[in-house]
């Protein structure tokens, strides 16, 4: 009797229990025969600190030769951007993409090798897509329409989407409560890498990504400093502006603490010799939207749904523009040249954009 109860409990425990698990089970059941897709962390760990990078691997294989192919040209066609990380705790997870983001591609290239028994592995940093706000257990799986029957439909010229969705297993992650000692050590390590001229570019890029996840007041201040250095270079050395990437702003935007970032940006903007450029103002404005409309940045069940949340975008934009105009008008009298001239030009452009945004809002009303 006791053994029978244990067996029954084990059977129930192995079945999907939550709505999230039931949706995943249904998608998994629809996966074509012979196709395997797995999601795991790159280092095998499943427990991470709250602000720690989480490297992931999505692996695809087939037990049936010449039956399935996978699009591996990321960002160059529709299938190459059609993927997402589904997560169970939507209310505790922030999505990095802006509301209304259109999934753009550099059209058009494709590469679809057949899947074999040897896995094709795609690597990601989960922090580029989702940020966890709280400690606890999270369930995540990868979903995509980049895997095709054969080489895909004959008429899509290599640029369409698969007629089925592929999902991986559910990966369970444990996120630890914030640890101030770990935070301090992490910040010191990352800044040591970023500021060391002997470090390779790939190492510095990895450290910059890790810094973008460190949502402590000290970590955010360090990120603002990096953005500051980029902005200064843009107006002090205009001939080098083309070599400066806007990716620096992602170090600021993708945060679980927009309130701290907004305060740090404002503090920097009020400095007399700091030139407020259009890029800096845009970053600041987007952060104001994240601060005031958290609900618009919560994780969604798939990427296409994330792109459909733009319906109230003007409602978010208008107050953000107004606040930005007010802040720049307050900051401008305290600026010294050449920062004053550059800030004045940015303010004029913001006023124009605000007028256009208000006009569009009135038309829709």
Q: How would you describe this structure to a colleague?
A:
By secondary structure, this protein is an alpha+beta fold. Helices cover 42% and strands 15% of the residues. The strands form 4 sheets. Strands 2, 5, 9, 11 and 12 form a 5-stranded mixed sheet that branches. A 3-stranded antiparallel sheet has the order 1-3-7, with no helix packed on it. The chain has a two-stranded antiparallel sheet with strand order 4-10. It is globular, with a radius of gyration of 23 Å.
Summarize this structure as a short list of keywords or feature phrases.
365 residues, alpha+beta, 3-stranded antiparallel beta sheet, 12 strands, disordered N terminus
């Amino acid at each position: 009797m006791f053994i029978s109860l244990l067996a029954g409990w084990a059977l129930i425990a192995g079945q999907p229990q939550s709505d999230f698990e039931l949706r995943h089970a249904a998608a998994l059941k629809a996966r074509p025969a012979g196709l395997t897709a797995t999601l795991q962390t790159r280092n095998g760990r499943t427990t991470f600190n709250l602000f720690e990078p989480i490297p992931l691997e999505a692996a695809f294989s087939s037990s049936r030769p010449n039956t399935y192919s996978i699009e591996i040209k990321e960002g160059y066609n529709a299938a190459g951007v059609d993927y997402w990380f589904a997560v169970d705790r939507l209310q505790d997870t922030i999505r990095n993409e802006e509301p209304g983001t259109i999934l753009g591609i550099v059209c058009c290239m494709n590469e679809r090798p057949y899947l074999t028994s040897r896995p094709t592995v795609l690597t990601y940093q989960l922090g580029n897509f989702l940020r966890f706000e709280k400690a606890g257990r999270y369930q995540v799986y990868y979903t995509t329409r980049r895997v095709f029957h054969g080489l895909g439909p004959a008429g899509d010229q290599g640029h369409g989407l698969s007629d089925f969705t592929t999902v991986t297993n559910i990966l369970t992650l444990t996120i630890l409560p914030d640890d101030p000692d770990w935070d301090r050590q992490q910040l010191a390590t990352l800044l040591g890498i970023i500021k060391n001229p002997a470090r390779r570019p790939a190492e510095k890029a990895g450290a910059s990504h890790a810094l973008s996840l460190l949502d402590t007041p000290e970590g955010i201040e360090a990120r603002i400093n990096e953005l500051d250095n980029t902005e200064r270079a843009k107006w002090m050395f205009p001939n080098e502006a083309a070599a400066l990437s806007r990716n620096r702003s992602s170090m600021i935007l993708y945060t679980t603490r927009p309130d701290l970032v907004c305060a740090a940006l404002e503090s920097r903007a009020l400095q007399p010799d700091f030139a407020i450029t259009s890029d800096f103002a845009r970053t600041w404005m987007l952060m104001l939207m994240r601060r005031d409309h958290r609900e618009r940045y919560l994780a969604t069940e798939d990427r296409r749904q994330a792109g459909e949340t733009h319906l109230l975008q003007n409602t978010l934009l208008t107050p953000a523009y107004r606040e930005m105009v007010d802040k720049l008008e307050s900051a401008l009298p305290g600026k010294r040249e050449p920062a004053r001239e550059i800030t004045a030009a940015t303010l004029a452009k913001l006023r124009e954009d605000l007028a256009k945004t208000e006009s569009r809002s009135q038309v829709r009303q």
